[in-house]
Amino acid sequence: MKIDLHIHSIYSDGALSPEKIVDIAVDNGLSAISITDHDNILAFKHAQAQALLKADEAGPPPLEVIPGIEVNTVLKEEEIHVLGYFFNFQDKHMLDMIAYQQHARVEQITRIIEKLNKIANIKITMEDITSYVQEGGSIGRPHIAKAILKTGRVSSVIEAYKKYINDNAATYIQRNTVPPQEAVENIYEAGGIPVLAHPHSLSKPEELVKELMNYGLRGIEVYHRRHSPAIIEYFSSIAENYNLIVTGGSDCHGIGPGGQLHMGKTHVPDWVLQELKNEKSRLEIASS
User: Fold this and answer.
1) DSSP category for residue 152
2) Confidence label for 56 from pLDDT (cuts 50, 70 and 90)
3) Are 270 and 1 a contacting pair, CB within 8 Å?
4) What's the predicted TM-score (pTM) here?
5) Is 94 helix (H, G, I), strand (E, B) or coil?
6) How far apart are CA 208 and CA 100, in angstroms?
7) Distance CA 219, CA 141 (A)
8) Domain shared by 124 and 197, yes or no
9) How far is C-alpha 153 from the chain's CA centre?
10) What pLDDT, on the 0 to 100 scale, is given for residue 252?
């Protein structure tokens, strides 16, 4: 069984449509995926519909599409991402949080556009940026970088990041977000499973885990393409110590240079998906 519980689509900073993600997953023998777009849930219905279509074409077993999201938060100037699985897509607090996050993205990028114009004399518009994401999708730094590249002022997306949209750039503005505690709580209250994403990127992950458990954190993303065996062992021990489940995925954003595709390439043990489902059942029993 191959699973990948961390994938991004064109509804955030991924390069593939939900339908294409499903096609690739089926062709590569995956049995379950989750599209965890940043602050966005629009890809799920398209992926689910495509999975059902593929099942009709090829017969069982169908690809299972797990409802997912990755909520981008900031705490004391550090980015903290919270994954959510199996939550109620109609939950008011979840929808309100997503709407807040979307508004914050537009507000942030509007101010960055102004700074790029005044400080760097780079003339780009909101329409230039939104052209790189599916309608209704989450705009962010990758789309700004592409718009800057198109002006010819830089030779690569990486150069655009380094010069204009890194955290310390004069033309960059930090986004206002919900705190990670609120993201965890909203996912949990919506019947979902909140998971700390790619903890290798955090300065004090264990302290954060203990803090977020007070708000409903139920898992840690232990398996990730940037996690070495030693890192996997370290975060597995933290999960065990605090009775948290383990999840994992490639954090795939599409086809990279040289045709490289990370989807399904990160080893995630079979039992991870079952533990995720078991946790969902425990939460349902606890809330009944």
Assistant:
1) T
2) confident
3) yes
4) 0.96
5) helix
6) 23
7) 27
8) no
9) 29
10) 97
Which residue bears the tokens 């592409």?
146
DSSP 20-59: HHHHHHHHTTEEEEEE--BT--THHHHHHHHHHHHHHHH-
Q: Where are the beta strands (DSSP E) in 134-274?
A: 193-196, 219-224, 245-249
Q: Which of 138-147, 185-194, 202-211, 253-262 has the lowest mean pLDDT?
A: 253-262
Cα atoms in the Cβ-side hemisphere of radius 13 Å centred on 101: 30
Residue 27 CB neighbour total at 10 angstroms: 10
- Is omega for the bond preceding 61 within 30 degrees of 0, making it cis? yes
Tokens of 24: 């690739």
Is residue 59 predicted with pLDDT exceeding 80?
A: no
Residues 181 and 278 in one domain: yes
pLDDT tens figures, 136-173:
999 999 999 999 999 999 999 999 999 999 999 999 99
Residue 15 to residue 37: CA distance in whole angstroms: 12
Task: Indicate the number of domains in the chain.
Answer: 2
Tell me if 220 is assigned to some domain: yes
Whether residues 148 and 124 fall in one domain: yes
